[in-house]
Specification:
With 463 residues, this protein is an alpha/beta fold. It has three domains: 257 residues, HUPs (Rossmann fold, 3-Layer(aba) Sandwich), CATH 3.40.50; 125 residues, Four Helix Bundle (Hemerythrin (Met), subunit A) (Up-down Bundle), CATH 1.20.120.640; 47 residues. It is 46% helix and 17% strand. The chain has 15 helices and 17 strands. Strands 5, 6, 7, 8, 9 and 10 form a six-stranded mixed β-sheet that branches. Strands 4-3-11-12 form a four-stranded parallel β-sheet. A hairpin with a 3-residue loop joins strand 5 and strand 6. Helix 8 packs across helix 9. The longest helix has 23 residues. It is elongated and about 85 Å long. The structure holds adenosine monophosphate and zinc ion.
Length: 463
């Protein structure tokens, strides 16, 4: 089966054909570090995490770049509003971002370049665009002339023929109705305070869009395989990235454009500006587990809108627990004989791969996994699973989890102390020391671990 992605550039599902054999080069637009990221933002991060994990599952060597936007209108505005030195302000939210993605078990990208560490590269790209006649100087900055770039609008399918010539937009964010020449470099004014760079192209700071063109070129080359981001970035951000990069190099920028749909709250995009957001930390404070959040955000197809509810989060939590309980039961299987499950294993594996190959169809992949889980569960309950087959099933689920990433993390969190208590209790039971075994069981319960004695032996699960 061939791996296919829906490419927003062509509006078609297309077979993935990489530039360098066996390698996948990905650029993912990262966070603007002016506040805690909300779980809508993390839907975007989790989508690119699933993409990179599945490419790795398929044997690709992945190089992923995620930029950190640490200078833009919002970072400057809010650091000044809060009276915190600019660098301190952006570093604080960068640190929180990394803490959150680690808790969400999001694999690290290979590089996280910051805009402020790449001013030299940005300036040299702006200079090149001016030399080639794509950019011009005005009183407040250097602008990209969108009429000069004949393909402008090819990603968002925007027709610019009727646009007023020479109209400019200085803000980083604007909508399709306001498609205009956009700022590559903004000359300093008093709103910027002490945030500026003295450069050959003037005293100022970069516009938001140019950093991604400069940094992707630095780390991935002029043309790379896959560009990701949320659908709200298609216009203007990604359209502008294409214009800057292709005007500069004369080459195609990215071959595949993959965008995740939004996380909604009561059918509106979760966003800072609407105020209808939950940060990941809000959710954890309410007592929910990071893996439930992860599962909830990956279980819907990335191109489908997802409405956030706490019922949905609860259902996600029980799905994760079902898988964990199955793993505990499988680990406890001791029997020498049982039914042959090799066909179930093959069916689950090929079903999972077929679904994921088809534009990362996670709902279909999960339904294959849960069908397999049901079968194996009933084989265990009927005492019809051998230890050898249980080990094969564990291996299979672990390989699925290299993509899902919902279980290992919790396993790792099972502390040494808990493991030792479970072993001690088994020991006590062997010695028929029931009082001691009950005492340890109660102690484990206090720590949130339930142990059960089954026909297959002792299993544990989290409360
Ligand atoms: P920002 O920090 O606002 O630049 O956004 C970081 C990433 O989160 C971008 O890829 C956005 O498209 C994405 N994003 C923002 N809000 C949502 C949402 N409600 N659902 C899904 N992705 C989002
Ligand atoms: Zn970007």
């Amino acid at each position: 089966m061939a791996l296919k992605f829906y490419n927003d550039l062509t509006r078609k599902k297309q077979e993935f054909s990489e530039i360098a054999k066996g390698e996948a080069k990905i650029y993912s637009c990262g966070p603007t570090v002016y506040n805690f990221a909300h779980i809508g933002n993390f839907r975007a991060n989790l989508f690119s995490d699933i993409l990179r994990r599945y490419l790795k599952y398929r044997g690709y060597k992945v190089t992923q770049i995620m930029n950190i936007t640490d200078v833009d209108d919002k970072t400057i505005r809010d650091s000044r509003k809060q009276g915190i030195p600019f660098k301190e302000f952006t570093e604080k939210y960068t640190k929180y971002f990394f803490e959150d993605i680690e808790k969400l078990n999001i694999e690290k990208a290979e590089f996280y370049p910051k805009a402020t560490d790449n001013i030299k590269e940005i300036v040299s790209m702006v200079k090149k665009l001016m030399e080639k006649g794509y950019a011009y100087k005005s009183e407040d900055g250097i602008y990209f002339n969108i009429r000069k770039f004949k393909d402008y609008g090819k990603l968002s399918h925007l027709d610019i023929s009727s646009l007023k010539s020479g109209a400019r937009v200085c803000n980083d964010e604007y909508d399709k109705e306001n498609a205009q020449d956009f700022a590559l470099w903004k000359f300093w004014d008093e709103h910027d305070g002490d945030v500026f760079w003295e450069t050959e192209i003037g005293k100022g700071r970069p516009g938001w869009h140019i950093e991604c063109s400069a940094m992707s070129q630095k780390y991935l080359g002029e043309t790379f395989d896959i560009h990701t981001g949320g659908v709200d970035l298609i216009f203007p951000h990604h359209e502008n990235e294409i214009a800057q990069s292709e005007a500069c190099t004369g080459k195609k920028f990215a071959n595949y454009w993959l965008h995740n749909e939004h996380l909604l709250v009561e059918n509106k995009k979760m966003s800072k500006s609407l105020g209808n957001f939950y940060t990941f930390r809000d959710i954890l404070e309410k007592g929910h587990s990071p893996m439930a959040v992860r599962y909830l955000l990956i279980a819907t197809h990335y191109r489908q809108k997802l409405n956030f509810t706490f019922e949905g989060l609860k259902a996600a939590d029980s799905a994760v627990k079902r898988l964990e309980q199955l793993m505990s039961k499988l680990n406890a299987v001791k029997s020498d004989s049982g039914n042959d499950i090799s066909r179930d294993i093959e069916k689950a594996r090929s079903g999972f791969e077929k679904a994921m190959d088809d534009d990362l169809n996670m709902p279909a992949a999960l339904s294959e996994i849960f069908e397999f889980a049901r079968k194996i569960n009933s084989a265990i309950n009927d005492g019809m699973l051998s230890k050898a087959d249980a080990e094969k099933a564990i291996k299979l689920i672990n390989s699925f989890d290299t993509v899902l990433g919902v279980m290992k993390h919790e396993e790792e969190e099972l502390s040494q102390e808990i493991k030792e208590l479970i072993e001690k209790r088994e020991e006590a039971r062997k010695n028929k020391d029931w009082a001691e075994s009950d005492r340890i069981r109660d102690l484990l319960k206090e720590k949130g671990i339930i142990v059960k004695d089954t026909k297959q032996g002792v299993i544990w699960q989290k409360e």
